[in-house]
Every structure is written in structure tokens, then in C-alpha cells.
Automatic annotation (TrEMBL):
Residues in Peptidase M1 membrane alanine aminopeptidase domain copies: 439-656
Top-level taxon of the source organism: Eukaryota
Organism of origin: Spizaetus tyrannus
Any one GO CC term of the record: nucleolus
Gene label: Aopep
GO molecular function: metalloaminopeptidase activity; zinc ion binding
Protein's name in the database: AMPO Aminopeptidase
One Pfam family named in its UniProt record: Peptidase_M1
Entry-linked InterPro entries: Aminopeptidase_N-like_N_sf (IPR042097), AOPep (IPR033577), ARM-type_fold (IPR016024), M1_LTA-4_hydro/amino_C_sf (IPR038502), Peptidase_M1_dom (IPR014782), Peptidase_M4/M1_CTD_sf (IPR027268)
């Protein structure tokens, strides 16, 4: 049954009808204007006919009718404001008023919502009258739906790719008749041939994508915008197969758009960047948001000289001067990924130059082999993903322990980055490689983002955003956060969740792996690793306990859609459950419960065997979208003996993923971490501080020679546990607070300790 989307609730609607048309490639041509706080330009989208229509189209065009009924259902069932009693009697002329063709010379006359001619636009998704163009015959025009929000769309047109010189190589037809239908079919055939070129012709493919994007238009298309979508149609075209497979959209963002934030950096200079919005990139460009819409892209971004454009492209762009004071930056990707992974940051960033000792570290680690090279035999197997130039099939990439990297920051933080961050990157990259093998991406930029960034870090392909908060103090917080974001290259990016409600697949794995990466980066002994990981587990358990006690139960479930996880509507539209709920942004339950599940599985199986299984999972599923059961089934297949002990996919769902609260297996384990030596050490220090506090309070104002108490030096995580434990005391006298500050030099510690 069709999901009813209600945009007034906390669920995020994914409107794109990907089952009927699937975007394969985007080309963006954008101008960034800091004065108006607007990004304006053109996007060209290249499509393939979607899987749902390909399945049914063999029986004839009439089968497509279910799609239109489907699309109608997806609209809010508000009454038409067209003054007729019978909707089926609407003529093309009446319906045309609700769609717009904007001439090339026209100004942007849209209202603040980017709507044209829609005086009574539905508050959520467009009303059902916008679904189809109903002609006198009763035939319905196909409607392409894209995810779009907070954008002013100026014009939409079909692109005449057949006009590109040299494009004949992509046509099988020997002759062309003068029938327009034949020409339309030819254009779509050219695009089909172009998007299905083999991976080794990727340079040629990008070249012709660019040429096609510059081809002339061959007819403007009707469109309308709603709160969450852009809907496009071509009069008389009734099937996705016949709909134009290359369309060009002129648009501009709005200053209040929620996909990017306009701000100033720590040096007071203007900048704009994608900050990981709950609505993803739909307020940056019209797109297909559902994860299934894996696509490649090219982007040219123009901005004033003095600004640096960083993006999630696989090339390190060099600016080209177009005219005095204007630079253009060009990026591209060849690995198909969801549109949500597209990232941009434009600012007066300065590159932090590497020091000589950093280069030496790279030289030493560049070709170190993974710790269990024998377990990497499946490298030679054919990848299971759609075809693209994959690093897992590249012999040189498979040996690259440290990928090329750069660090950017506002000028006032350059020295901090040199001191705290720069030398950690090769260590953490090498540790990640030793653990999981081939880096999925060919390079890495790390950017210290402005102070309004609401997280400690965010990973995208080829680029990581880090908060300035990771820089003060020692290397612990900076290193662990860097490891966490590097882990997302494998879990969250190279392997994505097929259903975005399963965030734990990304965040749980990254939290689990950050400990392993960081321990290897520090080259700790086995006992040191065990002690630090048990201390970390206790801190995370306390955090999870507090969050469970202070949050809604429905937000504590890792698989909120349970058996229907991963299911889509017939059109491909769906919702992200609780995707817009404000509290969810600050919750860590997906990190913590996901981490504890993986930790529990590692302890059950044995860490060495478990890491081999993780590497196997990476090689089997990179470049693909997965559900929880894909990982769990593969893992349990490798350890059939565990089924006898009752460890099954169903039991894991029941105990860990489908219920709120603290999982039962974790409740039983909670006390064991208190026996850890590092935790015992903290307990001893807490006792000393409480006794000292009591002694000071009893002595009152009397000056009395006090016995000198010797406090031990503590690790950052131990300090966090110590301070949390002391906060549980009813009162601490001011002198104790001063002593704590002096003993541990708290103001010089990292952000977690200071917090």
C-alpha cells in the first residue's frame, strides 16, 4: 500500500519517482555570490528509464497508467482550486496555468517559495491536480518528480544532445527520418549509450557529458514547485521511456536555504558550506535524494578571486582565471554515489603546508601491507557494484597506505593545524589501511570549518570537515575524531545504508573502528589497547544510559521501520522516519547502540576473526547500498557454530535493533568495565578528591597544615570519567574546584574534558 506523505510531521519525504526515471549524472555550472548570499546557475541531469517501468513496459504503454495513479496518491489529497466539478474534464489549457514555461529573457518572477502561477499552492506536497495533464482523450502525461526545497527555479528545457558534433558514435541507427518521434528516440538512445559506457572509457564519458550539457535546448518543459519537490512534464509524453533523458534547469538558491550555511570564518571572512543538513542537498540543487539514485557528477564553480572552492570531487582542482577577479574551479567524480554526499565549501581557506617530518612519515608508511594480507585474496574477484573505475581493482591503489592529503583552515588557525592535526593524518590513514585495506577514495582534504558547525566532524567523499574544537589540548580528541571520519570512507560512503533510518550502519561502525584505528595509530601494546577500549566502553555506556533516560523511546530504536525497512513505494518515493525531528540531531543512540552491538559481536567471535569478516564485507559490498541483515547474514555464515548458541539475525534484531532502551545483553556486561585497571585508577582518584573535599569542609576557616595528597596523572578519557564522577557529589567546595584546575591544568585539556 502507498505511503502517505505528511510533510507537517517529523518524517522527511523523499519525493523523487526513481522507479520510473533514475538520474545517472549531474553537471552543475554555478556562480557563488557572497553579496546576495545566493548560488545561481544551471544543472543538467542525465537519466535512464527506471527499473519499475522497464519491468512493466513490455506489455505496452498502458501499464504506465499505474504510475500516474501512484503519483496522484503521493500528493496531499487537497481539493483543486480549478473551478470545475469534474477533474477529468480539465483541459490542457486549464492545467497549463499551473505549470510554467519561463522564456529566456524573463526575470525571476517567482514568489518567496519559488512557485509560479500557484496562488493556492498546497502547504506540503502539490495537490493532486498537479499530478497529471489530463487531455480530452483521458491520456495522462508522465510527470518527473525531483526532490527540491528552498530553490527558485527559473526555467526547464530539454537538451538536444543529438546536435553535438561527433555524437554519432553513440547511435546505433544508420538513418534518421524527419519524424520528431524518431529524433526524440535518438536523443534518449544517445544518453543511454553514454551513461552505460564501460569504466575504462570514463574520460571520454565525462568529455561527452560536458559537450552534451552545452548543447542547445530543443523545447521548454512545463514545471511547478512544491514545498518538497519540482515536478516536470512534457505535453503529450505519457511514458518515462519517451520523456526527455537530458534536461537543463536554470535555478538559484535562497539565502535562507537549509542545505548550505552562509557565515564568516574564524578570521572574519565570508564563507559558505554544506553543513550536513537534515534535508541534505535539495536546497542546493534539484536532485533525486533517495539513496538508490547513485550518480556521478561534474561541477564548475565560479567565485571571486581570493576564495578557494573545495568539493567532494576526486580531483584536486586548480583554479582557472576567466576574467579579472573571477576564478573557476572544476571537480568531478566517477564513482556513483547518492546526491546527499555532494559537498562544497567556499571560503578564504589557506592550505597548511606539510613539514619535513610529516613527509618522512608518509614515505615510511606508503607501502605497508595490511596486517593480514593472506585474507585479501578476494581482491582479485570481480566487484559486485555497478561498473566504475574502482580502486579495489587497481593494483597501485591496493598498496597505497597513505592517500594524498591536504589540510585547509582560516589563516588564524594555521599554526594550530601544523601543531595538532597535520602529523596525525598519515598515522590515522595508515592505521585505517592496516585494518580494512584499500582506501575507497583516491585523496583527502581536511577542512577546519567555521565555529557555527554543530558537530565535531563530517565525512564526505574525498573531504572531511573538522570542528575547531578538536584542535586544543593534546592529540587524543583530534586523533579519535579524525579516525572516526576516516572510517566513514568505508562505512557510510563506499558502503551506504539502503534505508536512511538505519544510521547505525554508518555511525556504529565508525564509532567501533575509531578505537581500533586510533590504537594502531598510537602503536599501543595489547594491554594498553584493552585498557583504553574498556575505559571508552564505560564512558559510552554512561552516555547511552543518560540518553535513554532523557529521550523519547521511539527515537532509541535503530531500525524504526522494522520489517518494512528498505521498502519503497511503487514510484520509488519514501520517507525518512523522524528525519526532521529537532532532538534527533543531538542524539547519539545510533552511534552508541551500534557500537555496542559490534563490540559484542567482536567479543563473541574474537577480534581477529571479526576484523577479517569486516574486510570481507567491505570487499563484497563496497559501491553498494546495504541493510542490517546483509552484514549480519554474512557474518553469521562465517561462524555457523554461533547459531547453536542462539545468535541469529532474528535475535540480534530483537535484542539490539528493533527495541528501545539499553539492550539486555549490554545490561549484563555493564559492571565488568569497572574492573578495568584504568577505571580502578580513576575510582582511587575520585576517593582521594572526595576525602579531601570532606576534610576541607570540616576544617572550615581554620588554617591547618594539611597533609599533601599525591594525585596521579590521568589520560583524557580518565579525566572525563573523574569529572563526571565528582559531578555526582552533592557539593564540592570552591577550593577543591581550584585544586582540580591546578592539578590537571583543565583549561589546557581537550574540548571533551573542558565540557
Amino acid at each position: 500500500m502507498e505511503t502517505q506523505l505528511d510533510p507537517m510531521k517529523d518524517d522527511l519525504p523523499l519525493m523523487a519517482n526513481t522507479s520510473y526515471m533514475l538520474v545517472k549524472h549531474y553537471i552543475l555550472d554555478l556562480d557563488v555570490d557572497f553579496k546576495s548570499k545566493v548560488i545561481e546557475g544551471v544543472i543538467v541531469l542525465f537519466f535512464e528509464t527506471g527499473s519499475q517501468y522497464r519491468k512493466t513496459s513490455s506489455t505496452g504503454k498502458d501499464d504506465c497508467q499505474s504510475q500516474f495513479d501512484e503519483t496522484c496518491k503521493m500528493r496531499a489529497s487537497e481539493p483543486c482550486h480549478i473551478p470545475v466539478t469534474n477533474v477529468s474534464a480539465c483541459s490542457f489549457k486549464t492545467e497549463y496555468n499551473d505549470f510554467t514555461v519561463c522564456g529566456k529573457g524573463e526575470e525571476d518572477t517567482s514568489d518567496k517559495n519559488g512557485n509560479y502561477s500557484n496562488e493556492e499552492q498546497a502547504s506540503g506536497i502539490s495537490s493532486s491536480k498537479d499530478c497529471c495533464d489530463i487531455e480530452n482523450h483521458g491520456n495522462k502525461d508522465f510527470l518527473l518528480v525531483l526532490d527540491c526545497c528552498d530553490l527558485s527555479v527559473l526555467k526547464v528545457e530539454e537538451v538536444d544532445v543529438a546536435a553535438v558534433s561527433g555524437i554519432e558514435k553513440f547511435t546505433r541507427s544508420a538513418k534518421l527520418t524527419d519524424v520528431s518521434k524518431e529524433l526524440e528516440n535518438l536523443r534518449n538512445q544517445i544518453i543511454h549509450e553514454l551513461v552505460t559506457l564501460p569504466a575504462d572509457r570514463w574520460k571520454e564519458q565525462l568529455y561527452y557529458f560536458t559537450r552534451c550539457s552545452q548543447a542547445p535546448g530543443c523545447g521548454e518543459l512545463l514545471f511547478t514547485t512544491g514545498t518538497w519537490s519540482l515536478e516536470i512534464k512534457k505535453s503529450g509524453i505519457q511514458t518515462p521511456t519517451d520523456f526527455p533523458h537530458a534536461i537543463r534547469i536554470w535555478y538559484k538558491t535562497k539565502p535562507e536555504g537549509r542545505s548550505v550555511t552562509w557565515t564568516t570564518d574564524q578570521s572574519g571572512r565570508p564563507c559558505v558550506y554544506t553543513m550536513g543538513s537534515p534535508i541534505n542537498n535539495r536546497a542546493l540543487f534539484p536532485c533525486q535524494e533517495p539513496p538508490v539514485a547513485l550518480s556521478t557528477w561534474q561541477a564548475s564553480v565560479r567565485t571571486a578571486a581570493g576564495f578557494v572552492v573545495l568539493m567532494s570531487g576526486e580531483n584536486s582542482a586548480e583554479p582557472v582565471q576567466l576574467q579579472e577577479g573571477i576564478l573557476s574551479w572544476y571537480y568531478y567524480v566517477t564513482m556513483p554515489m547518492p546526491a546527499s554526499t555532494f559537498t562544497i565549501a567556499v571560503g578564504c581557506w589557506q592550505e597548511v603546508k606539510k613539514q619535513s617530518f610529516t613527509a618522512a612519515i608518509e614515505t615510511n608508511t606508503e607501502f605497508s601491507l595490511p596486517s593480514s594480507q593472506a585474507s585479501f585474496r578476494w581482491h582479485e574477484e570481480i566487484c559486485a557494484h555497478v561498473e566504475y573505475p574502482c580502486r579495489f581493482q587497481n593494483p597501485a591503489a591496493r598498496l597505497q597506505a597513505v592517500i594524498p592529503y591536504r589540510v585547509f583552515a582560516p589563516w588564524c588557525l594555521i599554526e594550530h593545524c601544523k601543531e595538532r592535526l597535520l602529523h596525525l593524518i598519515p598515522q590515522c590513514l595508515s592505521a585505517a589501511y592496516t585494518t580494512l585495506g584499500t582506501h575507497p577514495f583516491s585523496r583527502l582534504d581536511v577542512l577546519i570549518v567555521p565555529s557555527n558547525f554543530s558537530s565535531l566532524g563530517m565525512a564526505s567523499p574525498h573531504i572531511i570537515f573538522l570542528s575547531q574544537s578538536v584542535l586544543p589540548g593534546g592529540s587524543h580528541l583530534c586523533g579519535t575524531r579524525l579516525c572516526h571520519e576516516i572510517a566513514h570512507a568505508w562505512f557510510g560512503l563506499a558502503i551506504g545504508a539502503r534505508d536512511w533510518t538505519e544510521e547505525w550502519i554508518s555511525e556504529g561502525f565508525a564509532t567501533f573502528l575509531e578505537d581500533i584505528f586510533w590504537a594502531r595509530a598510537q602503536q599501543l601494546s595489547h594491554d594498553e589497547v584493552k585498557g583504553q577500549q574498556e575505559l571508552k566502553a564505560l564512558l559510552r555506556w554512561r552516555r547511552l544510559r543518560d540518553e535513554v533516560q532523557n529521550s523519547e523511546e521511539e527515537l532509541q530504536v535503530l531500525r524504526p521501520k522494522k520489517e518494512s525497512t528498505g521498502e519503497l513505494s511503487e514510484s520509488g518515493a519514501s520517507v525518512v522516519k523522524h528525519g526532521l525531528k529537532a532532538e534527533k540531531i543531538f542524539m547519539q543512540v545510533h552511534y552508541l547502540k551500534g557500537y555496542f552491538l559490534l563490540r559484542s559481536l567482536a567479543r563473541t567471535i574474537g577480534e581477529a576473526s571479526y576484523l577479517v569478516s569486516l574486510r570481507k564485507f567491505v570487499h563484497k559490498f563496497h559501491g553498494q547500498l546495504v541493510l542490517s541483515q546483509d552484514f549480519l547474514c554474512m557474518l553469521l555464515e562465517d561462524i555457523p557454530e554461533q547459531k547453536e548458541s542462539g545468535l541469529t539475525v532474528e535475535s540480534i534484531f530483537q535484542n539490539w535493533l528493533d527495541t528501545s532502551g539499553i539492550p539486555k545483553p549490554l545490561l549484563e556486561e555493564g559492571e565488568t568495565w569497572k574492573e578495568c585497571q584504568l577505571v580502578q585508577q580513576v575510582s582511587g582518584e575520585v576517593t582521594k578528591w572526595i576525602q579531601t573535599n570532606q576534610r576541607i569542609r570540616k576544617s572550615g576557616k581554620k588554617k591547618r597544615k594539611r597533609d599533601e595528597v599525591i594525585f596521579q596523572k590521568l589520560l583524557p578519557d580518565q579525566l572525563v570519567l573523574l569529572l563526571e564522577s565528582l559531578l555526582e557529589e552533592k557539593t564540592l567546595c570552591p577550593r577543591i574546584l581550584q585544586c582540580l584546575e591546578k592539578t590537571y591544568q583543565l583549561r589546557e585539556q581537550d574540548a571533551e574534558v573542558i565540557h
